[in-house]
Amino acid sequence: MDGAAPLRALVLTDGVAGHDRINLGVLAALGRLARVEARWIGVREAGSRSRGFDRIAARFVPFERFFRSRYEIEGKEARWLGPAEGARFDVVVSAGPSTGAANIALARQVGGRSIFFGFPKLPLLPEFDVLLRPDRPAVRLGRGVTVLRPSEIDPDALPRPRRGGEARTMAALIGGDTKHYAFTAEDFALLAEGLRRAAARGVTVTAFNSRRTPAAHFDAFVAAFAPDDVTRRVVDFRREGFRSNLDAYAADVVVATADSMSMIAEALAARRPTLMARPVGYRPPARDAAELAEHVQAGVAAFIGFDEFAFDHWPDRAARLRELPYHPLARLAEAVRPALRRAGAR
């Protein structure tokens, strides 16, 4: 790696924190294979149209015509993507469905290989040079490489968690509303009660909200949880911002609400006993359900209801969990390696 030319990565962000954490994970994996120089740009879809159709058009329609009609680039970045500038990158990296077609088009434009985390849209046409996906394809010929949702977390850099009755710290990672479920005041009241009971056992509990957490419900949660900065603590995303929950992954036990696939994956990557907390009546969408079921079947995570949490069922469930049996960044590096070979890197 020393002395070799750096791998130039163009990273597309849609402004979603979870997707940016995935992008950081891919960059960390690439960094195990080459010295990486990354440039980030914000992209936003203009209008609505079939994303599957856009992924076809991104391959064949001239860049200027396609991109100007479908995407807006934040700030002054659009200028250096024009043909006169001749910007060159080895790889284009992105996550999230709104960035898929942009990834394809920009990879063509800058002469790089595309690395995308998400799901395929087209039944036969290969869409990306490397497609990373969190689910196992339903058919044998399904495309993409199945990986744990990428994150920059390196479990070797973290202390080993204390397990069973030795656990002394707990992190509670709270997601929020999705198009499939809206949290209620009752949900947050149950969760606050459960976390207070955990703290009463002598466990220091730190609660972290996220961009999606409903503000009014979280404020009520904080009032009920009654942080004392000793056994009950709160880290508020609204004040602390992006990556403010990284300390959570050094806790002995991580509780993550079942709507947040990225936070669950990050807890698993940290090799923490991971409890996936779901409100009463919560039913994840089919893709999420399949992904969560794989974690359960692997024995690395377990479900717990908000109502069960309040009745103190968590210690036994956490004690039965095993840690992730592989290094997530090492496995991810192998998944993205083909893009480097095609880009001419070693």
List keywords for this structure.
alpha/beta, seven-stranded mixed sheet, 346 residues, globular, six-stranded parallel sheet
Number of helices: 12
How are strands sequenced across the largest beta sheet? 3-2-1-4-5-6-7
Mean pLDDT: 91
How many beta-strand elements? 13
Give the biggest sheet.
Answer: 7 strands, mixed
Assembly level = single chain
- N-C termini distance: 8 Å
Strand content of the residues, in percent? 15-25%
The assigned structural class equals: alpha/beta
Order of helices and strands: EHEHHEEHEEEEHEHEHEHEHEHHH
Q: Evaluate the radius of gyration.
A: 21 Å
Q: Helicity level, as a percent range?
A: 25-40%
Shape: globular
Low-confidence residue ranges: 76-80
Topology:
Layout: E1 7-13, H1 17-30, E2 36-45, H2 51-60, H3 63-70, E3 71-73, E4 91-95, H4 100-110, E5 113-117, E6 130-133, E7 145-146, E8 169-173, H5 185-200, E9 204-208, H6 215-225, E10 232-235, H7 237-240, E11 253-257, H8 261-269, E12 274-278, H9 286-297, E13 301-305, H10 306-310, H11 314-319, H12 328-343
Parallel strand pairs: 1-2, 1-4, 4-5, 5-6, 6-7, 8-9, 8-11, 9-10, 11-12, 12-13
Antiparallel strand pairs: 2-3
Helix pairs in contact: 1-12, 2-3, 2-4, 3-4, 5-6
